[in-house]
Write a structure and sequence with these properties.
single chain, alpha/beta, Rossmann fold, 2 domains, 6-stranded parallel beta sheet, two-stranded antiparallel ribbon, 12 helices, 8 strands, 12% strand, binds magnesium ion, HAD-like_sf, HAD hydrolase, HAD_sf
């Protein structure tokens, strides 16, 4: 008997909306790095519009800390130019901002992870509820077992925090890999050697395009989750290997998706 097929899910932007928690944790991580803590409670401040606008460009957690630093500094390039100009050369602008601050991605990621560990230790419930589950997604994931489909999670978050949140949603994936494990294309290759992959659901189009162009992964059905963090034109003119996944289709049996 062949092993059961597995559906692989991205986490933030597909299963949960973590932007509010990202804003809070990134603000605290920024203060931690510059040595000025607690001069504003991020729970009582609104998420800057530019932070939301730039979310679809973000690949890794540390970028959130960098964007937060830029947004909290009055004379930064991001503050002066706005998110739309900044996003036009997003990677280059992030690199320049990193150099300006004299920071490394590892340092920012470590500060973010420290802040999260502290938040969980101090008030686990508050930390968990600062994330919002996308409506009906967790419920639908639980039903895949009725279609003999397992599910797994591939995320650029740290696995330890993702596991806390999945537990809270009563979701228990067959496998879970965080950013520590490696990039998503490599992880899909590894998974596909052991288990046939029924599909990969992700809200970052660039990641899906990378998967599509990776030898050995071309046969994996790729789905762009329409309810996630999409750039304005992400759902237009998709290449033939990537299908737009609307909530209605997602709620229907997997056999009807293509
Ligand atoms: Mg995502």
């Amino acid at each position: 008997m062949t092993s059961q097929h597995i559906l692989i899910f991205d986490f933030d932007g597909v299963i949960i909306d973590g932007i509010w928690e990202y804003w809070i944790s990134s603000t605290k991580a920024y203060w931690k790095i510059i040595g000025k803590e607690n001069h504003l409670d991020p729970f009582n401040s609104n998420i800057p519009k530019d932070f939301r606008i730039l979310r679809p460009w973000v690949k890794s957690g540390w970028e959130m800390v960098l964007l937060t630093a830029e947004l909290l500094q009055a004379d930064s390039f991001l503050k002066a130019s706005g998110a739309s100009i900044f996003s036009k050369h997003y990677e280059r602008n992030c690199l320049e901002a990193l150099n300006k601050w004299g920071w490394s991605p590892e340092q920012l990621q470590a500060a973010l992870d420290d802040v999260r560990r502290e938040a969980i230790r101090k008030d686990r419930k508050r930390w968990l509820t600062s994330h919002q589950a996308f409506p009906l997604v967790a419920e639908r994931i639980k039903q895949f077992k009725n279609e003999s489909i397992e599910f797994g999670v591939l995320t650029t978050k740290s696995a330890e925090f993702t596991l806390e949140l999945l537990d809270h949603l009563n979701l228990h994936p067959k496998l879970l890999y965080g950013h520590e494990a490696g990039d998503k294309a490599s992880m899909l290759l590894k998974i596909s050697k052991e288990t046939p992959i029924a599909g990969f659901i992700e809200d970052r189009r660039k990641t899906l395009e990378t998967v599509l162009n990776t030898p050995g992964l071309k046969s994996i059905p790729c789905y762009l989750a329409n309810w996630g963090y999409l750039k304005p034109l992400d759902n237009k003119n998709l290449p033939s290997g990537i299908q737009l996944l609307e909530k209605r289709k997602f709620l229907s049996p997997l056999a009807n998706w293509s």
